[in-house]
Write a structure and sequence with these properties.
Layout lengths: L18 E5 L4 E2 L7 H10 L3 H8 L16 H12 L1 E3 L2 E3 L8 E2 L7 E6 L4 E6 L10 E2 L8 H12 L12 H22 L8 H18 L5 H14 L3 H18 L5 H11 L22
Helix pairs in contact: 1-3, 5-6, 6-7, 7-8, 8-9
Length: about 300
């Protein structure tokens, strides 16, 4: 792809929520190892099949020490490839060559999302938005709920490219408006999190969820809504608001279907809450009160 190297293009129309890739890792690096990271990765690569090694070594990398010769330091090359392409895989970090071909987009620009499934030992990637034939599939490499300058600086430092996605390419006024929305979303998330230590009440927490939802609609940011709705269901259940807990769980089911799949554990948990809100593990852990359900379309 011009200016990007390799990427993934849709060969047909893809529906929102469609499973695009299910991929097991070539290997996973645990949180702690008894050897150095480079030695552990080199050993892991040496244990792969030839085809798997080729898939790994064909991945791009950045931030390789300039004073080293890649041909004479293959272990350092392997480390650089891992650092550039690895993603979370449960408690560890894994390499997924097919997923690694997805390029990055910020905010409303990315259209696919990935999730690790512990019980399957695999990464799944779903279409967050409908994608038309010929469009590029984009995921996100970082939390993009921050201003353009900060996003670009992070991406240049860690991945070696200057982002020109459709959000980063907005004109000055539109970009400022986007930055303001993204900062407001981030701040609202931070405020919402304080419900956990009782700094705010349930009604304010739900009001913040609705604020986030509205701002994200304006921005076109559609990711993480299943988790947000599930968190709102938690708040509602904690305050023994059965109606709100059920409604938020139904909303979580809808968005989990798009983001992580209709066969995910998280969605199954929300189905139980819809059927019987009182079964939620947080039920009645806070004072009883009405907190409110989702915004109506």
């Amino acid at each position: 792809l011009p200016g990007k190297g390799k990427g993934v293009i849709a060969k047909r129309d893809i529906e929102r929520g469609e499973l695009i890739i299910r991929e097991k890792p070539l290997f996973v690096v645990p949180p702690q190892t008894t050897s150095s990271p480079s030695a552990f990765i080199a050993r892991s690569v040496s244990q792969l099949t030839r085809r798997q090694q080729d898939a790994f070594l064909n991945l791009s990398y950045v931030n390789f020490p300039k004073y080293l010769d890649p041909k004479r330091h293959p272990d350092e090359v392997a480390l650089a490839i891992f650092q550039t392409n690895a993603v979370s895989a449960g408690e560890g970090v894994g390499i997924f060559p097919r997923m690694a071909r997805l390029n990055h987009g910020c905010s409303s620009a990315f259209n696919v999302v990935y999730t690790w499934r512990e019980r399957e030992g695999a990464l799944v990637i779903h279409a967050l938005q409908s994608i038309r034939k010929g469009e590029e599939l984009l995921t996100t490499y970082t939390n993009t709920k921050r201003p353009r300058d900060q996003r670009r600086a992070y991406l240049e430092e860690h991945y070696g490219f200057h982002c020109t996605c459709k959000v980063c390419s907005l004109g000055p006024e539109q970009s400022r408006a986007s930055d303001i929305r993204l900062l407001a979303i981030s701040e609202a998330y931070d405020r919402f999190a304080t419900w956990g230590n009782r700094e705010i009440g349930g009604a304010e927490a739900i009001a913040l969820v609705k604020k986030i939802w509205t701002l994200e609609d304006e921005e076109g940011y559609l990711s993480e809504r299943g988790r947000l709705a599930a968190d709102a269901a938690w708040v509602a259940a904690s305050h023994s608001d059965a109606s709100a807990a059920r409604e938020w769980a139904q909303t979580a089911i809808e968005w989990y279907t798009y983001e992580i799949g209709g066969d995910s554990e998280e969605l199954e948990e929300m189905q139980v809450v819809v059927a019987r809100p009182e079964s939620h593990r947080a039920w009645g852990s806070r004072e009883r009160r009405s907190v409110g359900g989702p915004l109506k379309e």
